[in-house]
Amino acid sequence: MPRLDRLTSILIQLQSKRIVKAQEIADRFEISLRTVYRDIRTLEQAGVPIISEAGIGYSIMKEYRLPPVHFTEDEALSFITAGKFIERLTDQSTIEAYQSALYKIKAVLAHGQKELVDDLSERIAVLKNRYLPEERNEHLNIGLFLKAINEKRVIQIVYQSPVKQGQSRNVEPVGIYSSGSNWYLIAFCQLRNDYRNFRIDRITSFEILSERFTGTHLGLHDFLIQTRTERELTEVIILIDKEAYSYLGDQHYYHGFVSEKSVGSQIEMNFLCASLTGFAHWFMLLGSSADIVKPLNLRKIVSEKLDQVRERLEAS
């Protein structure tokens, strides 16, 4: 990237958040910290009022603003791509907020870019996953959860788990994430004095309280890494006939799929599985087209499940 373009991009990045660390700039543009310091000095010499705090980062005086930014063609098209995912994966209030923001973005696009965006918006789609339920909760209140997270406010929720009656509890929200067709809230539960993972569509009611929490919680990214590390995973190896393999679709990705290779007339598939019982239920769908290589106790679990099915059929 030419240096002038990089300087402009750094200036925009500095206005994108309250504090920007030098390492963030270096990582984004793949440059050294020494180059970052030199670029910052150049911007300062050009009259940009940059505030530098040792060990913290850079910020710009709040009164300083750039004139309206002109987007590149690729940047303009990325808004349309993002919008398609928002329409598929979020709730109605988030969709409406994004569409409102998109109108403002379009207002500063060049005439040719506006035509390009309008034309291509009809030529890109995000289809539903045929292995996941099509129904989607249109009232997830994602924006309100983000507001509570940003303001560090305690939320009072009633959570309905699959096996327990809904119970009121106060939680300190850490973050939200999407997985499959569901959204989840990571929060510190004051009732259990520990972190919990709540599926948002099972939160039957919630209220943002005036109470603020002051404790410092693990960041969402770090929490997800820690959770993944702490989970006890079991290596599973199965062999599936090649003619049956073509009908799997994407199902195996939901059971810890790691790798596969061809072995004669079969495909050897390797998994790191968090629940052998859950894996056994899925394996039964493969019928007589697959074999279990390891672990041996998975064979026992599948056999017991088959006996339970047989007993239930005979009793009905």
Automatic annotation (TrEMBL):
- Could you tell me the keywords of this UniProt record? Transcription, Transcription regulation
Every copy of the HTH deoR-type domain together lies at 3-58
The source's domain of life comes to Bacteria
Which GO molecular function annotations are given, in alphabetical order?
A: DNA-binding transcription factor activity
Q: What is this protein called?
A: HTH deoR-type domain-containing protein
Tell me which species this is from: Jiulongibacter sediminis
